[in-house]
Amino acid sequence: MARPPARCPVTAGWLLASLLGAGCAMGSSQLVVTAPVVDLRAKPSSAVPDTHDPLQETQLLYGEVVRALRRQGSWVYVEATEQTEFSHSGRWQGYPGWVPEAALAPADRLVLPLIVVVEPWVQAYEDAHLRRHSDRRFPMGTHLRATSFGDAVWRVELYDAAGFAWLPFRSARALHEARRLSPDVQRREIVRAAERFLGSAYYWGGRTASTRTEGQVTGVDCSALVNLAYRTVAVEIPRDAHEQFLKARPVEQPGPADLVFLSARDDPTRVVHVMLYAGNGHVIEGPGTGQQVRHITLAQRLGRPLEALPPGSVVDGQTVSYGAFLP
After folding, report:
1. Which residues of the chain have pLDDT under 70?
2. In a domain, 3, yes or no
């Protein structure tokens, strides 16, 4: 990848100048997210806390690559190429939206991720002995470039600063090892990952477990809960419920880690909600604004047990269907 000329240093100011066409040639329009989590917005405005904010599209995690399209003030309009969706334009593309420029950096040194964070949030450290807290934390599903040291710690390469951060070994999983897990083990690990979100606040467009983070609204919606749980075993699925429905393999009855879809009322072609089947007639779901991620039986949720809910069943105007991404 081409680097900018020496007279155009790679800084936030250089990024703005590049997007404005101020004489500093940009070798690529690719940028990388350098905040632990950042909102992707339908308009260049900050999120409204503790509400269903229709301008909230999704959230990006540290290290995600985006394609810059244009700038307005301190915001950059991007295509989030790692989160594919269909509904905005009737075609498959990366999620479009506005991101604060301060959360982005030129992607002049992209590295292949090697691990994925499997805890809801993990504290990073400045030393290999895990004694000095860094100012960084990473949420579940974050992909990082890291090296294992004695199966005790991970040394993580950072995009936005020279040097490294260190993570406890148990907090992340090597992607190559996750891909080698059998489907049965992957299913169990997906359900366990989803259970780590129990009690987290529902947040429309959110992609993290809820936590106290200054200046940042955190929480998870129904489809991000599923997306992130799958991500912990290196299985990439679409971010939104309708897109998950479009890509999933229809099944007659779900197994653990399969998906339970609900359509819009009186429109069976448009899926608006997804739940993760946990086995034994239970699901894990992010039910909606003002509520928390919960574990509930299908009989409680839909008024009928699983055996009385074949695909195509209609409950309160919503059509039920099931999908799988694993064998």
Report:
1. 1-28, 109-110, 162, 213-215
2. no
Domain CATH for 17: 2.30.30.40
Please, what's the b/e burial string for 241-256 (b: 16 or more CB within 10 A of its CB; e: otherwise)? Answer: bbbbbeebeeeeebeb
Q: How many CB atoms lie within 10 A of CB 25?
A: 10
How many domains are there within the chain?
3
Is 1 part of a structural domain of the chain? no
Tracing tokens 């909102």 back to the chain, one arrives at 39
Residues 209 and 123 in one domain: no
Residue-wise DSSP of 280-322: TTEEEE---TT-B-EEEEHHHHHSS-GGG--TT-EETTEEEEE
- Residue 60 half-sphere exposure toward CB, CA atoms < 13 A: 31
Whether residue 132 is found in the same domain as residue 85: no
Does a structural domain hold residue 67? Answer: yes
Q: What is the dihedral of CA 37, 42, 46, 48, to 10 degrees?
A: -100
| pTM summary value | 0.91
DSSP assignment letter at 238:
-
Q: Looking at the structure, tell me whether residues 58 and 144 fall in a common domain.
A: no
Q: Which domain holds residue 149?
A: 115-174
CB atoms within 10 A of CB 286: 29
Cα(154)–Cα(172) distance, rounded to whole angstroms? 8
Q: How many residues does the chain have?
A: 327
pLDDT in tens, 178-218: 999 999 999 999 999 999 999 999 999 999 999 876 667 89
